[in-house]
Amino acid sequence: MEKFICTYDNDETKYVQICNHIKNLIKNDELEDGEKLPTIRSLSDFLGVNKITIINAYKKLEQEGYAVSKMGSGTFAKKRDFNISFKRKYSEIFKTYSKEQLSKYIDFTGEVVKGDNFPVDVFKKVLNEVIDRDGAEAFIHQESLGYDGLRKSISNNFWHKSISIDNILIVSGAQQGIDIVSKALIDVNDNVIVEKPTYIGALSVFKWRRANILEVDIMKDGIDINQLEEILKKTKIKCFYVMSYFQNPTGISYSEEKKKRILELAQQYDFYIIEDDYLSELIYNEKLKYKSFKALDHNDRVIYIKSFSKIFLPGIRLGYLIPPKEFKESIISSKVNTDISTSSLMQRALGYYIDEGLWIEYIEKLNCSNKKKYRLLVELINSKLGDYVQCNYPEGGLHIYFTLKSEGMDSVQLFYKCKKKGVLITPGVLFFKNSKDGLKSFRINFSEVTLENIEKGIEVIENVLKHS
């Protein structure tokens, strides 16, 4: 209790001074995030002030984001996300800048493939074929699971009929899939494990559900299993959110051995795995063989989510979800309550596109295009950035993740300096629950940038780092 002693200044109210003292304890790590504060009665007795003073101090701490009260449990210290203002500013750039404004930058921040790769003429013909084939039916809402023709296409072409079409739910992309699953599974104060770092959108969903988010460090072949087991021994977990291939942002892919061990732990400790299959099609090294958690799952522990939006036309907003039997009905109800049905015409068109073999052709062309960009980027990193950064070479996906070697500059400063010179990067602070953890990292996405601009952009980053 001694650390709560504070000296009073007669010029300021006592409750404000007590509040400020506790804030400093939190800022200086003398109080840990989530640590319980003394009860109102015990602190008022210890400091020799009335209970109302402590009540007001705790209320002010909550209002300023340094504490959270839980009914029947007490008040708990809360670390403020010191980079929340930056996150807002970063988001505003892409919300408020026009397409013309953004076109003036070399933009390494995108998360989708370049639109130029999409065969628009081919897809126009597919749409016409579907309308000729199905007539007005093509525009009618489908059943809650989605258009059965598309579900059949997914089962036949991606799962070799090992997944029944009755277990495939069509959704409007991975973000909606994560949201639907969270609404069906996660209650307030449920414990959710995520990779550290992880996808911004997933963090937002889990925070919105008011879940307790626990992070596990990611290594070269997936998360640290020892850390995971330590958490599981002490804490009841509801689910683990994972990106199994070319993880966003690190580009890490899980080894099969690690996948199997995590599946064993899921069964042993009774939690579910939300698998976000992000970019498994985009493999630039023939030695890498794709095998999802879902494909290895013998105990129905995996909720599999796949989006077509990242590698197909983003505006189409289509993906699918494979739920465990236990949660199938609640997940379907969550989907219906969210938006009833996903575009019927686009579902039919995508099903036709897959069945006609056009999807495979498209992925092959896309891999060829992105492989050239990836190889160029690796060459430039080795020749120009090696003195300033460390990185993992993922051999697939759409991005590369960097860690700054120098202590002189953080990723937020790097962002602003590069922006002034016409280059946009994604600072690592966006991918962590606590932004401080991401100050030494950043991500660049190469899929929406031309080969020429990749060279120019890396040169800018090199010059900024060289003169920092």
Give structural notes.
This is DNA-binding transcriptional regulator, MocR family, contains an aminotransferase domain. In the C-terminal section; belongs to the class-I pyridoxal-phosphate-dependent aminotransferase family. Keywords: Aminotransferase, DNA-binding, Pyridoxal phosphate, Transcription, Transcription regulation, Transferase. It comes from Clostridium collagenovorans DSM 3089. Residues 12-80 form the HTH gntR-type domain. Helix 1 packs across helix 3 (51-63) and helix 8 (174-185) packs parallel to helix 9 (200-208). The strands form 4 sheets. Strands 4-11-10-9-8-5-6-7 form an 8-stranded mixed sheet, sandwiched between helices. Strands 12-13-16-15 form a 4-stranded antiparallel sheet, covered by helices on one side. The model has no long low-confidence stretch (mean pLDDT 89). Helices cover 44% and strands 14% of the residues. Helix 11 (256-269) links the parallel strand 8 (239-242) and strand 9. It is built from 17 helices and 16 strands. It folds into 3 domains: 2-77, Arc Repressor Mutant, subunit A, CATH 1.10.10.10; 84-110 and 365-466, Aspartate Aminotransferase, domain 1 (Alpha-Beta Complex); 120-359, Aspartate Aminotransferase, domain 2 (3-Layer(aba) Sandwich), CATH 3.40.640.10. The longest helix is centred in the C-terminal third of the chain and has 28 residues, at 358-385. The protein has 468 residues and is α/β, with parallel strands linked by helices.
